[in-house]
Amino acid sequence: ETRINHNSRSAYPAFYAAEAGLEEGTYRLNGTAINPISLANLDVPSKVVYLRQDSGIDPTNSSGPYCDSEFAGSNFTTISYVVTNQGSNPIPYPWVKISMKTKGLSGQDVDNTGLSTNPDTPVYFDGSQYLFDPTNGINPYRMGFPVFQITAFSMKSTSGTSAFTAFARS
Questions:
Q1: Fewer CB atoms inside 10 Å of the end CB: C or N, the chain?
Q2: How far apart are CA 141 and CA 131, in angstroms?
């Protein structure tokens, strides 16, 4: 029980750092935020924005310590990077990824055709249910708002010997 309690308490900082990343990503999508992320950088499913702790962090590098495991299997072709302006008080997470929510990335079969059909079609929300992009002819008579997926990654080491990683998704 003591070890379980210790591990649990040691993992909390990574979890809460990832949660802070979700908050930062959500805030930066707000047009009135300081240094907002332009929605033009996220207007199609092939675009992704990474909010990074510093410019040396590369989540697209599959052999790096901060690798985004979802990047290799994605169809992202346009990558934008935003580095925070934290100075002496750096953000507690290496990166936050913001992209349009798609059927494939979310793992939600919203049109009941299977996850492999239309995996890169963006998901929209009309206020009551998720639906596919009406401009591409799927549910063409329904209008909705694009849904964005935010993923934050955090890694905290304890005692210099073990590391706890946390992912949070909104």
A1: N
A2: 11
For 155, other C-beta atoms within 10 Å of its C-beta total 15
Alpha helices in the chain (DSSP H): 2-29, 103-106
Q: pLDDT tens for residues 26-58?
A: 988 888 888 888 888 898 888 999 998 888 889
Distance (Å, whole) CA 91 – CA 87? 9
The pTM of this model reads 0.81
Distances (CA, A) of 26 to 21, 66, 80, 118, 161: 9, 21, 16, 26, 33
- Tokens encoding 151: 């993923």
Give the span between the Cα atoms of 90 and 77, in whole angstroms. Answer: 28
Token match 């329904």: residue?
A: 142
The residue type at 157: S
Pairwise CA distance, residues 170 & 164, whole Å: 20
How many C-alpha atoms does 52 have within 13 Å on its Cβ side?
18
Asked whether the beta carbons of 149 and 105 are under 8 A apart, the reply is yes
